[in-house]
Amino acid sequence: MISIDILSAIKDRRSIHNFKNDEVERVIIQEIFTYASYAPTHYMKESWQIKLYEKNGKKHFIDAIIESYQRLGMLKTRDDDKTEKMIHSMKQFLLRIPHHALIYFKKEDDPVRYEEEYASVCAFIQNAQLTAWSYGVGMLWTITPYMHDEGFTRAIGLDPSIDKIAAVLQIGYPEKIPHDKGRTPIGEKLEFLSE
Ligand SMILES: Cc1cc2nc3c(=O)[nH]c(=O)nc-3n(C[C@H](O)[C@H](O)[C@H](O)COP(=O)(O)O)c2cc1C
């Protein structure tokens, strides 16, 4: 069913900033995260958890983002016209994105274990991006200030003392695919040490 090969997916995948309005079918979302879950995971911990916001479920999530930006001083709370318009356009922009997947995991007390779980969750995210690309679905991996705001974490029903938000993936069918920015030749970064 999927014909794209893994090397093409790795090289051709682009971060998508503009999405069509169409939703991605639930069965495809489940496929994407099923493949993602074959990421390497030390002690078979499979730490990743996903909250998938879509349809009306986006409203509460987006309100929590706006409130967080106000708490962090990035958006005014004042009730003036300019602020109202800014909040409205921000909400509309986020609502137009068909799905938002918030990826989180349980924090570890030991810093090495914490690093291992975060690394594994990042591998999960990249697997999800590559699988999505193979299905013609676009993603944007985002890390934004509200993810570090404890008030936001609580507002979405998580506990900041035990839950770590790793990323939010914006998901949908690409409206526009950005051009390939290319990469630095690996020879500039790869050092062979044979002796
Ligand atoms: C951990 C991480 C966080 C990122 N956060 C953002 C973000 O908040 N906003 C954004 O536009 N892109 C974000 N990106 C996407 C990068 O900007 C993108 O991967 C880079 O420009 C290369 O483009 P490409 O993915 O199309 O090859 C993030 C990527 C990673 C790995």
Automatic annotation (TrEMBL):
It comes from the Bacteria. Signal peptide: none annotated. Belongs to the nitroreductase family. This is Nitroreductase. GO terms for molecular function: oxidoreductase activity. Keywords: Flavoprotein, FMN, NAD, NADP, Oxidoreductase. Its cofactor is FMN. It holds the Pfam family Nitroreductase. The keyword Acetylation does not apply. InterPro entries: NAD(P)H_nitroreductase, Nitroreductase, Nitroreductase-like, YdjA-like. Residues 10-173 form the Nitroreductase domain.
